[in-house]
Amino acid sequence: MRGKLYGVGVGPGDPELLTLKAVRIIQECGALAVPGREKEETVSYKIVCQAVPEAAEKMCLELEMPMTKDKEKLEQSHEAAFAQIRKELDEGRNIAFLTLGDPCIYSTYIYMHQRAAAAGYETEIINGIPSFCAVSAKLNQGLVENSQMLHIIPSTYGIEEGIHLSGTKVLMKPGRKLGQIREELSGLSSCQVSMVENCGMEEEHIYRRAEDIPEQAGYYSLLIVKEQKL
User: ∠ CA(147), CA(160), CA(209), 5° rounding?
Assistant: First the structure.
């Protein structure tokens, strides 16, 4: 009997934000999978091991998935990663692929999910708390009210048009474009800009004004741009 692949969202960083269902699935699965060459350096794995200590004793597939926009390299890495997963599924092992936040939102897991489903394997997504919800809670504020719209924008793919959308804008993983983003946001006088770096993790930093945001910040940074009420 072939195994089942689970995409398990582990939340944004705080181990206490793992859902009860995520904990149960991790405990029940025969193997884990993480996007990284060394599991001990993988953020999702470290989060899980704090909340589910026995996870450290499980088999773990370390899947090399480089951060690149090169479609050919991405395809090759995804195929190689799925080959590792497929081998264990064929051995009858259920696998929990650990992913930060929620597996449905800009997650590496979904590429494995699509391949597994297309190949006839059983799959299931276990939702996690999204990073932008955790950041909003950390800032002690809501994201949207009444008829306001919410826009989730991947910052590395260009934000020139996105930041002018009406409502609340969530700018995910700004990375090296943070300086450019600050420039773009400087012209928005009617917006409140906040950023949290490493939300729920040890190196967490909170910035409540656009002018306080540094030129550079860690990969796990997220900005919230809210329209001010007039």
Answer: 70
Closest CA relative to residue 113, chosen from 40, 38, 9: 9
174 exposed, middle or buried (CB, 10 Å; 0-12, 13-18, 19+)? buried
Q: Which residue has the higher pLDDT, 182 or 87?
A: 87
| Domain with residues 4-126, CATH architecture | 3-Layer(aba) Sandwich (3.40)
Q: For residue 126, which of 200, 46, 1, 26 has the smallest C-alpha distance?
A: 26
pTM value? Answer: 0.92
CATH number of 131-227: 3.30.950.10, 3.40.50.970, 3.40.1110.10, 3.30.200.100? Answer: 3.30.950.10
Round to whole Å and give the CA distance between 156 and 173. Answer: 7
Q: Give tens-digit pLDDT for 26-75.
A: 999 999 999 988 999 899 999 999 999 999 999 999 999 877 777 888 89
